[in-house]
């Protein structure tokens, strides 16, 4: 049976969500995108135009359909897309749905871009996949058509919004006085309370909870001064995690019901994994309060996107790597027949750092991890692997990740950034051969940190020597050889890490990945992590 189809797509999602330096607006924007189709398209538009429309059964339907359950049927929602089907008696409904929905988006959520295409799809499995693929192609082609400019342009005669890059077109009171802001910003900011209520229900089942999620970037437990803290670190981290090859998994679905089921399973798996992360943080709260400056019951993490296979959150920089590691392992665990392989990028920045730039770097780091994943999979003839990369951004940074690493981590000998790092399932056996395992980097950092304890009297090099090591690695081979000789004379050694014997002897080793070979060292990454790993979170 052939039916009419409308395919909607939210465009430039990341730009819409992260183009603000106000956490409440970021959270509100994410909520708008997440609820746009179910709340606005389905409830506010479709049900008002067709009261008998079926907007919910796709979530639980597992049987094949050869005819529509209703004259207007929601086939699936997920990944920023929605597929709506209508029978042949409701052809006139297509234009009404599109016109009403897009008009509502333009007026309620200025700055949010929605793409749309229409066509025909066959419900039978053997033809549905091909028809759906054609719809996606049309949708992509439509992106290159003209989009009307509906917001005031930035000119020399206009004022820029205090919190976004858009032109300011209204005045609001934020408590500290009147501000010139963009209407697009206001709609995001005003959605925060609804977003916060929804977050509590999703993660705890109720709004009535004692735990508090931060609403400002400076509430993540940063150590603002050295008077009452051990480190004085005033950094946050932006963590971006993306599922691997999820597009291919959806394309390979055999029929509409399989596509709908996968969309729901992925969303459920992502949410349950993040719930596990929050519970882990709560279970470790005593460790956190001993090291961070947290308000009572304040969690040092704020999720911004938790949808589909896409997760982005901001957190205290000192828990970022361990939190991302835990979450990736949760996603990887095969619970209820669903496991998600993923890659992650972590950008550590000062609290005042431009948030959108930090997010862009986190996204580039995630892309770097995915590139390493593809090379590793090909070299080792495996289908999947998970990888994580990170960077510390202090001061002005280069416009691209490659330029950043070239400026900050190149030395006379080789590459001082060793990542991305391989993330394994919690129960996996890690071989000596895998020199990129994240657990090996964490163990190296742990051994470095032992030297900071005043009571430590082992063979590991002293704390001052660890700090010296970073500058030594930037110097020539002669200086590095002298450093190793001095360690041996003093009966000291570098951390004992399985598979890293070559690094312990020479500081550097030739590393092969794909068709490239280069000299690399893992010690700079380990040194930089020393203040960003909390003992007790293992």
Question: Can you identify the CATH superfamily of the largest domain?
Answer: Reverse transcriptase/Diguanylate cyclase domain
Helix content: 40-55%
Compute the separation of the termini in Å: 55 Å
Question: Total number of β-strand segments?
Answer: 14
What's the main sheet like? 6 strands, mixed
Backbone CA Rg: 26 Å
Beta-strand percent range: 15-25%
Assign the structural class, choosing from mainly alpha, mainly beta, alpha/beta, alpha+beta, or little secondary structure: alpha+beta
How many domains in all? 3
Average pLDDT figure: 89
Task: Output the keywords.
17 helices, Alpha-Beta Plaits, 4-stranded antiparallel beta sheet, 538 residues
Summarize this, please?
The chain is of the alpha+beta class.
Characterise this structure:
This protein is an alpha+beta fold and 538 residues long. The chain folds into three domains: 2-142, 2-Layer Sandwich (Alpha-Beta Plaits), CATH 3.30.70; 213-408, Reverse transcriptase/Diguanylate cyclase domain (Alpha-Beta Plaits, 2-Layer Sandwich), CATH 3.30.70; 447-532, no CATH class. The protein is 43% helix and 17% strand. The chain is built from 17 helices and 14 strands. The protein has helices spanning 13-18, 23-49, 91-108, 125-142, 183-190, 192-204, 246-251, 256-283, 285-291, 320-332, 355-380, 401-408, 438-450, 463-474, 477-489, 501-506, 523-529; strands at residues 2-11, 72-78, 81-86, 113-122, 170-173, 178-181, 235-243, 301-307, 310-316, 342-350, 386-392, 421-423, 509-513, 516-520. Helix 2 runs antiparallel to helix 3, helix 2 packs across helix 5 (183-190) and helix 2 (23-49) packs across helix 6 (192-204). The protein is globular, with a radius of gyration of 26 Å. The N and C termini lie far apart (55 Å).
């Amino acid at each position: 049976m052939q039916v009419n189809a409308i395919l909607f797509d939210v465009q430039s999602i990341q730009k819409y969500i992260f183009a603000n330096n106000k956490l409440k607006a970021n959270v509100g924007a994410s909520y708008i995108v997440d609820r746009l189709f179910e709340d606005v398209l389905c409830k506010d538009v479709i049900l008002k135009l067709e009261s008998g429309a079926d907007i919910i059964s796709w979530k639980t339907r597992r049987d094949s359909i050869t005819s529509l359950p209703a004259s207007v049927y929601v086939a699936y929602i997920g990944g920023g897309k929605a597929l709506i089907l209508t029978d042949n008696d409701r052809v006139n409904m297509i234009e009404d749905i599109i016109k009403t929905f897009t008009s509502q988006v333009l007026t309620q959520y200025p700055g949010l871009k929605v793409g749309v295409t229409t066509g025909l799809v066959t419900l039978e499995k053997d033809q549905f996949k091909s028809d759906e693929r054609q719809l996606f192609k049309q949708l992509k082609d439509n992106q290159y058509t003209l989009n009307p400019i509906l917001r005031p342009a930035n000119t020399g005669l206009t004022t820029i919004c205090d919190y976004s890059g858009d032109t300011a077109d209204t005045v609001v009171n934020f408590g500290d006085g009147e501000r010139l802001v963009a209407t697009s910003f206001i709609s995001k900011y005003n959605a925060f309370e609804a977003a916060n209520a929804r977050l509590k229900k999703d993660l705890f089942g109720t709004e009535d909870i004692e735990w508090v999620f931060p609403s400002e970037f400076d509430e993540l437990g940063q150590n603002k001064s050295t008077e009452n803290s051990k480190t004085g670190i005033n950094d946050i981290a932006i963590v971006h995690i993306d599922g691997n090859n999820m597009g291919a998994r959806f394309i390979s679905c055999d029929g509409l019901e399989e596509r709908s089921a996968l969309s729901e399973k992925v969303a459920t798996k992502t949410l349950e994994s993040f719930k596990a992360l929050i519970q882990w943080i709560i279970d470790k709260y005593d460790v956190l309060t001993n090291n961070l400056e947290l308000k009572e019951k304040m969690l040092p993490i704020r999720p911004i996107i938790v949808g589909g296979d896409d997760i982005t959150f901001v957190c205290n920089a000192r828990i970022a790597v361990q939190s991302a590691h835990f979450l990736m392992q949760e996603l990887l665990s095969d619970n209820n027949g669903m496991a998600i392989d993923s890659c992650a990028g972590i950008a550590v920045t000062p609290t005042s750092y431009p948030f959108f730039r930090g997010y862009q770097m986190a996204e580039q780091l995630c892309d770097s991890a995915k590139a390493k994943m593809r090379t590793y999979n090909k070299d080792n003839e495996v289908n999947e692997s998970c990888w994580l990369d990170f960077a510390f951004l202090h001061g002005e940074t280069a416009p691209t990740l490659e330029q950043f690493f070239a400026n900050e981590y190149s030395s006379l000998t080789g590459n001082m950034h060793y990542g991305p790092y391989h993330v394994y399932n919690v129960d996996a056996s890690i071989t000596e051969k895998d020199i990129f395992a994240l657990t090996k980097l964490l163990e190296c950092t742990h051994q470095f940190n032992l030297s900071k304890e005043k009571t430590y009297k082992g063979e590991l090099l002293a704390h001052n020597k660890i700090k010296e090591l970073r500058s030594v690695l930037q110097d020539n081979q002669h200086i590095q050889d002298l450093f190793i000789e001095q360690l041996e004379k003093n009966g000291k050694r570098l951390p004992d890490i399985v598979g890293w014997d070559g690094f312990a002897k020479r500081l550097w080793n030739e590393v092969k990945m794909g068709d490239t070979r280069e000299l690399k060292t893992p010690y700079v990454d380990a040194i930089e992590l020393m203040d960003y790993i909390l003992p007790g979170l293992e």
